[in-house]
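Running co-folding for protoporphyrin IX containing FE.
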Amino acid sequence: MLSAASAAVVRATLPVVRAHAVDITAHFYPSMFAAHPDLLHLFNQGNQADGRQRVALASAVVAFAEHLLGDAPGGGFDMVAERIAHKHVSLGIRADQYPVVGRHLLASVAAVLGDAVTPAVAAAWDEVYWLLACRLIAAEARLYQRAGVEPTALWRRWRVAKRLDEAVDTVSFTLIPDRDDAIPDFTPGQYVSVAVDLPDGRRQPRQYSLSQGPGRGSMRITVRRVRGTAATPDGMVSTHLHNHLAEDDSLLVGPPAGETTLVPATSPVLLISAGIGITPMAAMLDHLARTQPTRPVVAAHADRSPAHHALRADCAHALAGLTHSDCLTWYESGQHNDSRPGRMDPGILPLTPDTTAYLCGPVPFMRDVRSSLLRRGLPAERLRYEVFGPGMLDQHTG
Ligand SMILES: Cc1cc2nc3c(=O)[nH]c(=O)nc-3n(C[C@H](O)[C@H](O)[C@H](O)COP(=O)(O)OP(=O)(O)OC[C@H]3O[C@@H](n4cnc5c(N)ncnc54)[C@H](O)[C@@H]3O)c2cc1C
Ligand code: HEM
């Protein structure tokens, strides 16, 4: 809990910190990387370039301050903290790195807000930072313990047992441990971080959802190549994996992590995806077909065309193994067999009073579907979603 003296200062300064939060985090990252260039290989440089990690960090700190002051709706921050802890654990973030981040973050508060940061203001925000840090460190320690991994020895070498072209610009890699290591337990919906050494010497991590359920003696990821445009470069890691990762090659992989997982129950499941957002849904479908074949499941997917629709055959196979299932598909390219033309119409997605919905795809798509389902009465706690980037849906303005 925040001390009474700090609470008063944080309440008084929260509006100015909130207004400058993104400027503070924009100052923070370059200054931390200048002092600790070794950290560059831990942070996704794509997210640095487009500013999304900046917004995610700023939003998390402000949301935590609001939570401490009792200004935020109850329970909201738990989801944010859980998401951050899982992401940190997938990357091997350690407790001893928190002082470094804290020092640079508070120095950036002082640099951006200038004279407004009196010693009392600095002390109050230091207290906020450390309350948040302690909470994350504790959550991460629990996750490391549960996974049986040490953050210092997190990355393991896996071998590509199979590489398969799935759809336009989309390849699956089936991974098995390089040595006699056991395959870790995971829950459908989870992801792994992979780290690649790029030709320019940089190491870069990225997350990929596991696209098959557990219990298959392997883990599979399915990667869509991110193509550049006139204004943006090709994606670093997806391009590297597509161009260079062949069968029998090895890959550094972290432990499965992620909190957007299939809830064990018997109630109806609605899986909604677009584009490469199908990957966690494919794992859930695979798992449901093998472990709960009588559970009611609807899979709804939108894609550009049948040629872009990855994992279609796997999902059809899993759906055929479910006794109460339905499949709804939309293609922007037009009607194809029993699909619908155009974009997904969330208004026709079937909802029952006890449906749990899982959502993954581009942010604007997820925002549309989510607001439609909430309007139709689905409680927010029964709508679980995965964002393929930093932050949660509420933090994305684009
Ligand atoms: C939990 C989670 C699960 C995921 N699951 C999957 C999955 O199953 N399958 C999958 O394919 N992806 C998945 N992703 C996305 C994946 O992690 C990567 O983000 C994706 O592969 C792109 O990485 P990249 O290195 O190729 O692109 P990056 O190099 O990171 O680039 C990303 C974007 O930023 C732009 N950019 C980069 N640098 C600049 C610059 N200087 N100026 C302007 N723009 C720039 C690029 O043009 C590109 O559009 C997941 C992400 C998360 C967080
Ligand atoms: C209180 C302290 C911290 C807060 C509030 C915080 C917050 C966040 C948030 C909000 C994200 C984005 C999560 C998501 O994907 O949605 C994130 C990711 C990340 N954090 Fe932290 N973090 C903290 C400490 C640290 C520390 C000590 C390190 C280690 C140097 C670290 C390294 C990372 C990395 C590498 C990522 C992934 C970045 C990316 O992929 O772009 N964080 N953190």
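Result summary
The longest strand covers residues 156-167.
Residues 269-395 form a domain with the Rossmann fold fold (CATH 3.40.50.80).
Job closed.
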